[in-house]
Every structure is written in structure tokens, then in C-alpha cells.
Specification:
alpha/beta, 10 helices, GMP Synthetase, Chain A, domain 3, globular, 7-stranded mixed sheet, 24 strands, Rossmann fold
Amino acid sequence: MRFWEGLDRFSTAPALITPHETLSYAGLSEAVSKTASDITTGMPRPLVMLSAQNTVASVVAYLACLVANTPVMMVDAALNDDLKNTLIKTYHPNLLISTNGQVPVLDIISSTPTPTHPDLAVLLSTSGSTGSPKYVRLTAGNIAENATSIAQYLNLDQTERPITALPMHYSYGLSVINSHLSVGAALLLTPDTIMQKPFWDFANEQKMTSFSGVPYMYKMLKRLRFFEKDRPSLKTLTQAGGKLDEALAKEIARSAKAKGIDFYIMYGQTEATARISYVPTDHAEDKADTIGVAIPNGELNIEEGELVYRGPNVMMGYAETKDDLLLGDTCNGVLYTGDLGTQDTEGYFKIIGRKKRFIKLFGNRVNLDDVEKEVADRGIENAVTGQDDALVVIITDTTKESDIKTILKDVFKFHPSAISVKCVDEIPRTSSGKVKYAGL
């Protein structure tokens, strides 16, 4: 039985806790059943676009789509309207579900069902806030299998109380929700961020047991002196969404060990639903420079220098148009990650480079070509490069620097602190006109 089937088996145990309400598993099951019925009334298997955020209504709507066996496209509720409209024109969803209130609100966009493959369950963006029309196609099996694997290596049980510090539309954030619901844990739902006092007031009041974050979050926690304070209820820290600075990772590992807290460094991709590998907590310090070993039921190998993963959580494939939603499984359980890696004598894997043009910006994967095209469409010659948490835009017109930061802030919601604009006399190109990114 998959975790969204029979949610009421956990009965009166708390499922979702917010600063304003607590919903039991029985109550969650009832709300999900009602919404699932609403979604499929008058339209067989509609394509749903869910404006996701960390609210009860979002979780209910997401689970309702799984229960109703209707594909759901997860979209950031804060996504720029132009980018959201581009997605609507590209994929022709039938229903738009908004989740600002206490219950999901369904709006019919098109009454003509968009054809989709019968195995398609969830669509997740490959590049978060850039609104790229490229989506990952996941099956119900992908979702269920990854939730089970994560729960297994993190030793999750019904006593857990994780807080939603990560957005629900992001594969890492969604995996926290999935894995904990699979064991009957209580999710602490909040739209607040770690830089806001209400977040920590809520976390402390509800006795948060685990925190999951991306590298920049852990940098912020260090500034907030998080690791210097006693938090008796905290049992687990997990990190993914890019490489954490090795020195900081070791510092956190030492602090966590001293306080009896498990710290897990993890690696994953949306294409594998969420998680691919993890560093066992006992080796968090001495293996901080690695991505660890494959998750349960998964297999990692190095093939011609590239990290290749095999497992039941590997996607069906990509979608870039609505016609792609009819495609079957094009991956057959094999994911070529695009990351270059090595394996040490103890079996631990390390990433040493990337084949693809993307970086992790505050935990979200950013396709550098998407950013470059957006700027070019505004008539500005540019080339985009960078590394995790540092996006670099190279331009030739010195008067456009402020324009670049405004564009990236307004369109992609990138924080200005992560953007660097460099002016050069000429962008280096090959004889065929292609940008020499290595030179940049």
C-alpha cells in the first residue's frame, strides 16, 4: 500500500500542524477524499496545475491528486505570472488549484482533458524559480519508492516532527513531506523562513525533531548561532541541494555529534524523485567531502567518468511540451546524472565536476541557458556562468548592470546577493560564434 492510500490508518495522530490548527490523519484522509472527488467530478483524469506552498490546502490538494490518480504539475505559488502563463500555454492544464486559504480552490482552465500517459503522476520542474518549461515526469511508484528509501536510511517513525523549511514544489521539500507521511509523523507546516522569528517560535513550541536545508540555509544557521544553542527535541539534521562547504560540514558534524544529533549529508536530483545517496551519520565528518553511498534499493556507478544511478525512483523522462505527457518510460530506471565523479576504496562517491550547464542557487537548480536567454531576449548581449550560490552574468554594455539585477530579481526572484555582473570588452567566442564558457 502506498503512503497516500489509507491515511486514516494513523487515526487520531497529528498529521499536519500549523501555528493555527492541527489536522489528524483521519481528518487529513477525509479532506483528501473530498478534494479528490471534486477534482475528478465531470472530468476523467484532468491535468492539474497546483500552486504549491507550505499550507494545509497544498498538502491536501497534492495528496488528493495522488489518490485520484490524476497527474499534478507542481508550481511555485510565487512564480512570476508571465512564467506561469507560459507553462499554461505549453501544457494546457485543465485545473488550476490555488491554496492561499484553508481549503484548495479549483478553477477550470480547460474542459477538454489533456491526454497524459496512464502512469504519469507528478510533474516537477527541473529548474525551480526560472519557470523552465522542462519538467520531470514521475510515476506514483517513483514517489512511493523514494519515500520508503528515505524513511529507511533516516530511521523515521511516527514520533518525528519535521518542519517545512523548504518549499513544497521543490523535490527536496516534497520528499520531506512524502517520507514523513509514509510513517505517520506530524509535519510542522509554516510559510515563514528561517530568517523570521515566527519560524523559530513555532519550531520550539511544537518541539521540532528534524530540520532539512540546503547549503545557504546552513550558512545562515551558523550566523544565527543555531549550533551553539541547546535544542532538546532536535534529533536529525539533513542537507542536500548542492555541496556544503567542507569545513562547515565538518563543523556541523562535530557539533551535532556532541549534542547527540544525527547529521546526514545527501545528494539527489529531481530526475530521481529526490534522493540518490547519503553519508551515514557516523561518517558525517570523515566523509564530508563525499556524497556517500547509494540509498536503499538504489545503485551508483562511475561510467566513463560520469556518475550513473539505477533505481525504482528514476523518472519516466522529461517533458517540454504537452505531447511529451503521453510518453512512456524512456529511462528504464537508469539516470545519467551529468555529474563527474570518483569512488574511493571504501565505496564512497565524490563529485568532481559537471557535464551540464546548471548550478544550485539557494538549493534550487538553475539552468544557466534559461537565464542567458531571458537576458538576451531583452536585447542585452550576455553570457552566464557561475558556481553554486554564485551566478555570474558577463555583459559588454557597462550601462546595463542595474538592468540585469532588476530582470533577474523580478523574473526569477533571485536574491541580488547571489548575482554578480561583470563587464568585458568582448565575450570570448569560437569561430562558429559559440561562447567559450571555459574561458569565462
